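pls design
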């Protein structure tokens, strides 16, 4: 048995090439230490000329020697000359740091001679599955002798990978690269390079990249030695937003999405043209759950972080719809965050989200932001006071009209131009389709608006919306009357 001491294993790949085991010297042992609890041990036994197997042990008796009392961790024993790979998270052992042993053992060689092999060893940081809540790695460092850190993470399909390398130390330079795993779960030379950011000096490096298929990825932080003086410290934020889209008048819809204790928020990234109005409708929230909605404007780096500006929010109680209607004068990138407020007993909430961008202020999304008839049909007169402005362009009132009933709507007390329209979402898709606008009133300036004589039973949404660039307060009157017919 031959023993090789590798020392501390880090993100930098350690390769041992042209080694061999045989029927006379059946095992090689590679001893290495793991000093961080969140490391992912990657071992790749390849270039085989015969059959050899790979086993990982932990020095559980802490004597620095591989013996029978050490803990078996895992192994790979593929036949023939197929490569054996071990991808093991130290967190699976409760974050056990200390000494590990990688054992390469002879199995067979048809020629009868030794089995030659190469062994690559690395220990990337295990980040886990990315979500919209950024995972921050702060005060890490790369040095002249340990020049790279690698962070392994998983994402779901059709998500945007967001990486932000920042707080790089003065007189230091570090670069950021993104790789896609080749399927073996460890960082090696066969992984696919996707993109990189190599800004000079200690300027931030940012990567925003859409993954169609999802899977395992590696973010590599590398010290740029010509531009660095000594150790380079840095922070890295990692997150995944839902597929980035350019909003238009054609609504973008995501249905039956889920929040739970492990992932309490979802993030959606949008691009919007100048002078467009953003419309968001969070609806179909599961019974006994409460989910809220916030809209942020990107600070210019394309990455969701704590310096992005919160421009609008909606936090209606229970599973009532949450709507945002915001005027994006300059356009740009925006983030819509859906976050659970409370869950029912099963610890999970589902919801639908619709999003669009229009050049007018009225919304082509249907939602009952304010329910005028909770739990019953309209059977009495109602008066409401409200306001609309560039951060809340539309107030949407849900009205349920019963049999033998009619209703009139009037809008008064305006200080700037506002209009109203009545919508009946006959196909219940949450979108104002052709023919679903029942009536409207669009007089100019501060003229009062009215819609009268609505006498067909059913569910309606009345939109009060700002018309021009200036917001206004208003008085809304809902006048109920009885009819002699159903």
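designed seq:
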């Amino acid at each position: 048995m031959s023993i090789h001491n590798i020392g501390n294993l880090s993100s930098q790949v350690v390769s041992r090439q042209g080694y061999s085991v045989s029927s006379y010297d059946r095992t090689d042992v590679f001893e290495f230490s793991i000093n961080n609890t969140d490391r992912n041990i990657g071992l790749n036994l390849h270039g085989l000329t015969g059959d050899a197997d790979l086993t990982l042990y932990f020095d559980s008796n802490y004597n620095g020697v591989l013996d029978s009392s050490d803990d078996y961790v895992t192994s790979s024993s593929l036949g023939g000359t197929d490569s054996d790979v071990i991808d093991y998270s130290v967190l699976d052992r409760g974050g056990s740091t200390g000494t590990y042993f990688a054992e390469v053992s002879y199995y067979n060689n048809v020629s009868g001679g030794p089995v030659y092999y190469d062994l690559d060893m690395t220990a990337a940081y295990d980040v886990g599955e990315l979500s919209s809540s950024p995972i921050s790695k702060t005060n890490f460092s790369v040095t002249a002798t340990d020049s790279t850190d690698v962070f392994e993470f998983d994402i779901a399909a059709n998500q945007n990978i967001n990486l932000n390398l920042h707080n790089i130390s003065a007189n230091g330079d570090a670069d950021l690269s993104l790789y896609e795993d080749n399927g073996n779960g460890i960082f090696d030379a066969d992984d696919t390079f996707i993109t990189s950011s190599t800004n000079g000096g200690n300027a931030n490096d940012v990567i925003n990249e859409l993954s169609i298929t999802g899977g395992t990825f590696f973010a590599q932080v590398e010290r740029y030695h010509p531009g660095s003086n000594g150790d380079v410290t840095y922070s890295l934020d990692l997150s995944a937003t839902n597929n980035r889209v350019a909003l238009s008048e054609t609504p973008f819809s995501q249905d039956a999405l889920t929040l739970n204790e492990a992932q309490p928020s979802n993030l959606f990234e949008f691009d919007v043209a100048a002078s467009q109005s953003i419309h968001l409708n969070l609806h179909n929230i599961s019974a006994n759950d409460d989910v809220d909605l916030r809209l942020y404007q990107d600070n210019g780096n394309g990455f969701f972080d704590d310096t992005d500006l919160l421009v609008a929010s909606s936090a209606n109680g229970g599973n009532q719809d949450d709507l945002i209607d915001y005027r994006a004068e300059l356009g740009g990138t925006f983030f819509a965050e859906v976050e659970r407020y409370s869950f029912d007993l099963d610890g999970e909430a589902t919801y639908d989200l619709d999003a669009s961008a229009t050049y007018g202020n009225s919304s082509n999304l249907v939602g009952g932001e304010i329910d005028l008839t909770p739990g019953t049909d309209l059977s009495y007169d109602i008066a409401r006071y409200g306001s609309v402005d560039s951060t809340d362009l539309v107030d949407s009132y849900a009205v349920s009209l019963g049999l033998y009933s009619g209703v009139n709507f009037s809008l008064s007390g305006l200080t700037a131009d506002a209009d109203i329209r009545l919508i009946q979402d006959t196909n219940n898709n949450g979108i104002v389709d052709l023919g679903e606008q029942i009536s409207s009133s669009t007089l100019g300036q501060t003229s009062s608006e009215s819609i009268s004589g609505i006498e067909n039973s059913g569910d309606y949404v009345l939109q009060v919306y700002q018309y021009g660039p200036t917001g206004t307060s208003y008085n809304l009157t809902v006048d109920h009357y009885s009819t002699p017919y159903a």
